């Protein structure tokens, strides 16, 4: 069975996604609060892992590439955005840095002991297909650690936009059921999947959008809703978003995070 995701979806524009992340390479580290938190949690969930060759898929600016290298692993860092890889190279000269796409993995079979991929696979066109490729690249007995986003992520932002206009302003994410199906369809043990909601707070809707832009997570799969932003629209968004605040200047932005830790047969 295939997850519901991809059938009705337009093809993801990988050049545009890479360009948007690339533009954020210099600001990424100062806005990556969620990414740090989730990556650390993923490593904690995985527990101690034997040293070996590790693929950091969607490595971004290389924070976790560096961390895993310092633990003694040999790293392959792969990302769609070459400006992100420049930072990874600077941070971690010993890592092999490759520009590439999770949906067309440029790696052979059984070539790594572990895959670490934190908050990148939500950008994949077809999660099942991406997971099958990851599975192929990991040697028997190796591990795959992933975190990705599920439906409910950016929910407050979507809700606030919904009160302003009917344009698609926020990407949609796979439901938990679709994520479980994607994992099972890839032949990975679905029992090892967990979900948690992480909520960050910002003082304005502009701060929310700056934070998303800061990490490069602003590409919209359906059209470019950002082009039509003007002062009037932004003021309407701010009013709508403020109604969701738990206390003044505490605008919530929630992420439904999915963690998967798999050991291969
Ligand atoms: C939110 S960042 C996460 C970076 C890093 N894993 C971390 O936790 O800090 C997502 C990264 O995934 C990359 N990415 C997005 N789609 C990708 C794809 N299809 N293949 C490879 N990398 C991709 C982006 O360029 C970006 O650097």
Secondary-structure topology with pairs:
Elements: H1 14-23, H2 28-31, H3 33-46, E1 53-57, H4 63-70, E2 74-79, H5 82-91, E3 96-99, E4 112-118, H6 127-137, E5 138-150, H7 155-164, H8 176-185, E6 193-202, H9 205-215, H10 231-242, E7 251-263
Parallel strand pairs: 1-2, 1-4, 2-3, 4-5
Antiparallel strand pairs: 5-7, 6-7
The structure holds S-adenosylmethionine.
S-adenosylmethionine binds at residues 17-18, 21, 32, 35, 39, 58-60, 63-64, 79-81, 84, 101-103, 118-120, 123-124, 215, 217.
Structure description:
It is a single chain. The protein is of the alpha/beta class and 265 residues long. The chain has a domain at 14-153 and 172-199 and 256-263: Rossmann fold (3-Layer(aba) Sandwich). The protein has ten helices and seven strands. The chain has a seven-stranded mixed beta sheet with strand order 3-2-1-4-5-7-6, sandwiched between helices. Helix 6 (127-137) runs parallel beside helix 8 and helix 7 packs across helix 10 (231-242). It is globular, with a radius of gyration of 18 Å. The relative contact order is 0.18. Residues 4-8 have low confidence and may be disordered. Residues 17-18, 21, 32, 35, 39, 58-60, 63-64, 79-81, 84, 101-103, 118-120, 123-124, 215, 217 line the site of S-adenosylmethionine (SAM).
